[in-house]
Amino acid sequence: LPPFDPDDPLGIDDLLEPEDLAVRTTVRQWAADRVLPHIADWYERGELPGIRELTRELGSLGALGMSLTGYGCAGASAVQYGLACLELEAADSGIRSLVSVQGSLAMYAIHRFGSEEQKQQWLPRMASGEVIGCFGLTEPDHGSDPAGMRTYAKRDGTDWVLTGRKMWITNGSVAGVAVVWARTDEGVRGFAVPTDAPGFSAPEIKHKWSLRASVTSELVLDEVRLPADAVLPEVTGLRGPLSCLSHARYGIIWGALGAARASFASALEYARTREQFGRPIGGFQLTQAKLADMAVELHKGVLLAHHLGRRMDAGRLRPEQVSFGKLNNVREAIEICRTARTILGANGISLEYPVMRHATNLESVLTYEGTVEMHQLVLGKALTGLDAFR
Ligand code: FAD
């Protein structure tokens, strides 16, 4: 039998191809070099300095729009994309959020629903990291229920004129293009809005206690005039943004486990070396129970992510299955981080260790891309056939 590997107790790596392992190693190394040495400082300052350079480096790695094909995208498998998300989030959820929003929301929307001209105009520069994208769906008064959105686009001759506000938009203040969803006379439509358009502004949201190394913004659209060809032609209705969200949620199923893995590793190392009552705290049964339960949930989550990744690669992943994964893996990841925090005692609350940073980051991850309750309602509806949303 192969020996027991504490990093991979179930032997899940056996499911990976050599190319998958290469992607994982590359992204892990990049995060170790470029993010980990600075992240505590960035987090404390509430900034992501050098975001443009970091984004270009992520573009060089092929991590932006990674599972899309053509237009400079890497055309990687869903499993490889997932592995990259996990490695990025093991450094910080803010970095993974940057990549998710760029690739799975902004680029995915243009790739799936854009015209050939829009794809040519935006995607190669977004894949290289030259242009950052954001995705504006949430509004101050409409989060879980985007059907009530107030931002609207009206026709004026052949032009469109957009008015409204979007809230909590990742990458907003640094974006060169904003994919904005607005109501129109025909239903909800998506627009590729160049952020230098007159009437567009994106003030940054400050005073966050979560995802502090991530840019989060309000989008203000004050009669932004756009040419006819700014609308994404291939979709009308909420199906558009929801299918983008499904793609991004898939990455989060993997990503959240990165935060959990880093916190678990920190707690395991601490438990082995910290001594109380004359012996390492890892020798106490209560600590071992915590570590065993954390490892069980962490690696069950990885197995689930793998399973869903293979379904996505086979074109068989249903939205309800994405909800299943997002609900379980983010909820378990935050529990792992919180338990890790207890093992580190007082040191657990310090930025010297990563666990509290990961735990507070996951508070956002628990809420965005569909709250826990929304995914319970999706599954509840699928199980019972009864719609409990309203
Ligand atoms: P609400 O919808 O007001 O929900 C509040 C509470 O009520 C939740 O617990 C919710 O589950 C519960 N609730 C609501 N309806 C029901 C119901 N029917 N039954 C039971 N419970 C219910 N949005 C974007 O568009 N683009 C982004 O890039 C983006 N980035 C984000 C980054 C961060 C850091 C954060 C925190 C959020 C981001 N969001 C983004 C917004 C995010 O998607 C929303 O916050 C989320 O959808 C929830 O909306 P809300 O905050 O308005 O909460």
From TrEMBL:
| Protein name per UniProt | Acyl-CoA dehydrogenase
Boundaries of every Acyl-CoA oxidase/dehydrogenase middle domain copy: 134-224
Q: Where is the Acyl-CoA dehydrogenase/oxidase N-terminal domain?
A: 18-130
For this UniProt entry, the molecular function terms from Gene Ontology, in alphabetical order, are: fatty-acyl-CoA binding; flavin adenine dinucleotide binding; glutaryl-CoA dehydrogenase activity
Q: Which GO terms describe its biological process?
A: fatty acid beta-oxidation using acyl-CoA dehydrogenase; fatty-acyl-CoA biosynthetic process
Q: Which Gene3D superfamilies match?
A: Acyl-CoA dehydrogenase/oxidase, N-terminal domain, Butyryl-CoA Dehydrogenase, subunit A, domain 2, Butyryl-CoA Dehydrogenase, subunit A, domain 3
InterPro entries xrefs: Acyl-CoA_Oxase/DH_mid-dom, Acyl-CoA_Oxase/DH_mid-dom_sf, AcylCo_DH-like_C, AcylCo_DH/oxidase_C, AcylCoA_DH/ox_N, AcylCoA_DH/ox_N_sf, AcylCoA_DH/oxidase_NM_dom_sf, Glutaryl-CoA_DH_mitochondrial
Q: What cofactors does the UniProt entry give for this protein?
A: FAD
The protein's UniProt keywords, in alphabetical order, are: FAD, Flavoprotein, Oxidoreductase, Transit peptide
Give all residue intervals belonging to the Acyl-CoA dehydrogenase/oxidase C-terminal domain.
237-383
| Pfam family for this entry, one | Acyl-CoA_dh_N
Family of this protein = Belongs to the acyl-CoA dehydrogenase family.
